[in-house]
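Q: I have 229 residues here and want to know how they pack in 3D. Can you give me a structure?
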Amino acid sequence: MFRGLIIVASLLVSGVPVAHAQLKLSDFFIDLDQQTKANELFVSNTGNERMFLKIKASEVVDPGLESEEVINSENPRELGLLVSPQRVILEPGEEKRVRLVALADTDKDRFFKVNVTPVVGELETTETIGVKLLVAYAAWVFQRPDNAEPELTVSRDDGKIKIRNIGTTHAEVLPGKQCSASGEECDDLTKVRVLVGHEKEIELPFPDNTAPLEMKAVFSGKSQLVKVE
């Protein structure tokens, strides 16, 4: 859920060498501006070959839940998100901008996944067998309601932190670390994204240490301090 999806593909072509056309995205999680309902994604080619990209968006309803549904449409107005351009040519070392614009208002969180996929080209070689490696990525685009904020309720029980979101938009919770009672050992806690109306749990590495914890919830360029007693 909410990962920059990596797909590695190999293609048999006429040549022994491995050709690298390396794709890089400026971000994997993008919030659309609540005023302009737009933002940008930058794609760049850090490899040594020309790269051809196909860019396609889909809407994901209830991401990560049993009720998850993926909606595809070639019509941006039906989908609700305009991605422009949808095809990009990148020379080695070149970077280009992809515009992302929501085409309708919303009264609840909407989640779009923008797949950026290299298109296979020819590999020049005089040998008999070769491989071209391609890596594709997905960026998540979030459209939030106007003035929406998360409201998180937190409890600690049986060695776990339970976080429930009763607000109007999702939030990513960055829980930091927990240390042992002696302070000699510390472990990072797992970050989670909590959707509206849902709950997430975080396992505590040192459940016997009941000292208060502080976490940070981030959303749309803002943050909230969350205390766990």
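Q: Anything worth noting?
A: DSSP finds one helix and 21 strands in the chain. The longest helix spans residues 76-79.
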